[in-house]
């Protein structure tokens, strides 16, 4: 059951100047990947045989870079008060579906299949901000997709899951063999990547997790490490909306 | 000529593999140090191309492990990393001991430059 033994991710909580610098390092570090992909795929596209594949890789890498920049900007604008994320009742599952739609090109590029599902009882509306939650989920999911450990031709599943829990609704990203162990996820070690140590034990810089945590703080939600069956992941624990109190069947 | 590519990013790995195969190299790709050691033992690569930033065991850990085997002292290794050489806190003598042939900064190294570096190593090893 998701939520069994789930707990709040440590690290990255303090909003100090050095944390901002770490986030910036992680972000720029992470941007190197899509930019390098674009540079190399452009070279390869000159070869007729791989033109089609290279051009679609370029398109997906540009989208990934822009998505990272947009989420970082939203987070920064919010921090300086230029952008306010108003909380309103919404369906977390619909936000996950929108996030999945946005992530589709990246998932295809990394040979992943995105699965949106609800576990257990039907989820009531949560108090959140649609744009902020979507940005947090796409940031988290990008980390899981890009950390693909899939060498086979078979598509690997990345699951966007909602689940009603005792203290709210969990909306998160779960997968198997995602390249980081449970402890590094739970300890928040991937929050900083190279910003914290020269050779971290993860290949992804963790900028997406860092941005997600910051956005979720603004939504009065918590970033939690959680397990579901043989999957592990990170998710937002969102407060249930009490505005309408409709009975959910 | 067989290359072992150790690269964590699937998209980049595919691009490099296409390029090597187009240029008539045989290539094995692995995304972790552990799997790379097993592949090296099985397929005996002629050249290794290594990213230092890996999930689990890091690139430097792979290097020390790999060079600890007597058979693998002279297999040429090219580092192709998104970490600039200036930021890697490894002394010149340590690199020399690990027998690193070239250090290439991945974001600015073109496919053509990488192929040139491989060709140069082949010439040296003839």
Structure overview:
The complex is a heterodimer of chains A (249) and B (126). Chain A has 249 residues and is of the alpha+beta class. Chain A is 44% helix and 20% strand. Chain A contains 6 helices and 8 strands, in the order E-H-H-E-H-E-E-H-E-E-H-H-E-E. Chain A has helices at residues 17-45, 51-79, 92-109, 130-146, 182-186, 207-218; strands spanning 7-8, 88-90, 112-119, 126-128, 156-165, 168-175, 222-228, 231-238. A 6-stranded mixed β-sheet of chain A has the order 1-7-8-6-5-3. A two-stranded antiparallel ribbon of chain A has the order 2-4. The longest helix of chain A is centred in the first third of the chain and has 29 residues, at 17-45. The model of chain A is unreliable at 1-5 (pLDDT under 50). With 126 residues, chain B is an alpha/beta fold. Chain B has 5 helices and 5 strands; from the N terminus they run E-H-E-H-E-H-E-H-E-H. Chain B has helices spanning 10-22, 33-43, 59-67, 92-98, 111-125, and strands spanning 2-6, 26-30, 47-50, 77-81, 100-105. Chain B has a 5-stranded parallel β-sheet, sandwiched between helices. In chain B, strand 3, helix 3 (59-67) and strand 4 (77-81) form a beta-alpha-beta unit. In chain B, helix 2 runs parallel beside helix 3. At the A-B interface, helix 1 and helix 2 of A face helix 1 and helix 3 of B.
- The overall average pLDDT of chain A, rounded, is 82
Biggest pleated sheet of chain B: 5 strands, parallel
**What order do the SSEs of chain B take from the amino end to the carboxyl end, as H and E?**
EHEHEHEHEH
Which percent bin holds the helix content of chain B? 40-55%
């Amino acid at each position: 059951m998701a939520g069994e033994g789930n707990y709040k991710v440590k690290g990255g909580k303090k909003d100090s100047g050095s944390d901002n610098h770490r986030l910036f390092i992680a972000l720029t570090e992470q941007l190197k990947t899509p930019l390098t992909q674009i540079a190399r795929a452009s070279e390869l596209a000159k070869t007729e045989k791989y033109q089609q594949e290279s051009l679609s890789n370029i398109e997906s890498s540009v989208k990934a870079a822009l998505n990272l920049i947009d989420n970082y900007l939203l987070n920064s604008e919010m921090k300086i008060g230029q952008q306010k994320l108003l909380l309103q009742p919404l369906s977390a599952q619909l936000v996950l579906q929108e996030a999945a739609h946005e992530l589709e090109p990246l998932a295809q590029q990394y040979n992943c299949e995105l699965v949106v599902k609800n576990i257990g009882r039907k989820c009531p509306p949560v108090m959140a901000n649609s744009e902020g939650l979507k940005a947090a989920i796409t940031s988290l999911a990008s980390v899981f997709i890009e950390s693909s450990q899939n060498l086979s031709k078979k598509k690997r599943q990345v699951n966007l899951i909602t689940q009603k829990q005792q203290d709210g609704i969990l909306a998160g990203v779960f997968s198997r063999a995602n390249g980081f162990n449970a402890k590094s996820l739970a300890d928040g070690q991937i929050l900083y990547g190279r910003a914290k140590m020269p050779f971290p034990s993860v290949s992804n810089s963790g900028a997406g997790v860092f941005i997600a945590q910051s956005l979720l703080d603004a939504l009065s939600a918590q970033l939690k490490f959680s397990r579901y069956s043989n999957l592990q992941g990170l998710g937002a624990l969102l407060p249930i909306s009490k505005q309408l109190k409709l009975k959910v069947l | 000529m067989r290359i072992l590519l150790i690269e964590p990013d699937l998209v980049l790995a595919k691009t490099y593999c296409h390029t090597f195969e187009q240029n008539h190299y045989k290539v094995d790709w692995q995304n972790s140090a552990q799997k790379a050691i097993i592949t090296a033992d099985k397929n005996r690569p002629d050249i290794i191309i290594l990213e230092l930033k890996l999930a689990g065991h890091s690139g430097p850990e792979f290097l020390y492990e790999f060079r600890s085997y007597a058979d693998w002292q002279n297999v040429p290794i090219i580092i192709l990393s998104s970490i600039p050489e200036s930021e890697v806190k490894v002394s010149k003598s340590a690199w020399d001991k690990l027998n690193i042939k070239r250090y290439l900064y991945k974001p600015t190294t073109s496919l053509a430059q990488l192929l040139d570096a491989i060709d140069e190593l082949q010439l040296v090893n003839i």
